[in-house]
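Data availability (excerpt). The following record was deposited with the supplementary files.
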Amino acid sequence: MAYLHRMQRTGALLMGFLDRLLGNDHQRAATQYAGRESATERATRRRREAHHRGGAQQAARAGQAWEDRDRAQDTKGRWYRAAR
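Predicted structure:
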């Protein structure tokens, strides 16, 4: 138990030293990177845009394929059968 307490205290001292040496990450993020897009936000935006582009192209291809099938059936006379 004493070992754990000593490690926690040492870790807190080390983090305090690193904060003083390098600066506080939270303060730096709030000031230096304010208004900038994070890497996570950029990846999410790119994934969403790629999905949108791919989905629109896929729908366009499906619509064209339907139109081609419909036109082929019209020329073969499958949609309308004349009365006898």
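Summary of structural features: The mean pLDDT is 78.
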